[in-house]
Amino acid sequence: MTEKTSGEGSQPRGIQRPQLIVHAGTHKTASTYIQERLHRNRDLLRSQGVSLQDPEDYKPKPKKLAAELCKQRSRRWKAFFKQQPEGSHRLLSAEQFAVPLTDPDCIRQLEAMADEAGYELHIVIFIRSQLDYINSRYIYSLRRFYHHQTFEQFVDDALKGRLQNEKTKRGKIERRQDVFDFWSYFQPLLKARDKGLKVSFLPFRQGGLDPFEQFILAINLSTALSWKQCPQRHYNRSPGTRGVWLARLLSQLLKENKISPKTIENSSQIILREEQRRFWRDSSFWGYSRKLSKIVTKHFEANNNKFAKAAWNCDWEEAFSTTNQTAQRRRSTYTPGSIENEIYMHGIAHKLLKQIQRRIDRKTYKSTPGNMKNHLQHILRLG
Questions:
Q1: What is the mean predicted confidence (pLDDT) over 360-365?
Q2: Domain identity same for 173 and 256
Q3: Side by side, which strands form the sheet with 120-128?
Q4: Which of 11, 106, 283, 317 is 20 to 30 A distant from 241 in Cα terms?
Q5: Global pTM?
């Protein structure tokens, strides 16, 4: 597999102009893990001439810059370019960049701002096979209680280019819903690449090359350097089969009680914490039957091959050769084996619902000015 020359192998060193490297995810391609390792290795990156815009150390944060791009504003970008980096090249990492990079105007704006500041823009973006990606997005959205669809309903929507509870706009740009059809979704980037923009599309392979090492190679740094590892907790953990079943039930209860997921703090951690508390060690969720897996594969086959040819000069199967076994993977889901088990799981869901309701009630009480005043007066009387 050889990627076309405007992508992989773009060098941050040994070129005439420094690079602005933008790692744009996409979602569910180990971005959290890559960002943590970049953070832990910021000194080593600096020694190689690459200055990381670390959100823990510098402002504006990459996520804010992505949001600014969506709004087609430049104030934060001007502040970013005014900073004096310690390395020749600048590195931004935020999966939120994937959305504006599907819009031609945003791509042109970013390229123009980088050029004006004296940088050559280099986009690095990971691509995950649809079977993995849809399964992962289902778990991601369910554990945040965005919907209570069955996996089959979610897949049906995905094939029709619909995503549950996704905002239609982000800033000034339309938020694309066809996120799983890469040939269509990344047309603006592919066209910009044909005109000379440096874009590295990297195949995200489950069980393949470490994604951090893939990224390091894409910006032409050596994987043989002493890169620090990061603890296992920085790999985004997903619920197991029981957790996914519980998340769907709780999401249904939240909707019945008219509780918006936006009002729930740290919603993505609720199911994970419950799993830990109950010492559940279930297998990973995999929602596909063999039949459904074949339907999804067939649906994207033609456009996948077009995309792979454009991105890597090969067919899709060659690019994802190490993940072809996903099509043969056995379905792994949870169904209560008895009425007692179902009652038990419903009890857990209702307990979590009450906890969420209490937290929201406390938050509402504290945010009411009169209640805060009475509460303070009560404390003063006690003193």
A1: 80
A2: no
A3: 50-52, 89-93, 19-23, 120-128, 198-204
A4: 317
A5: 0.86
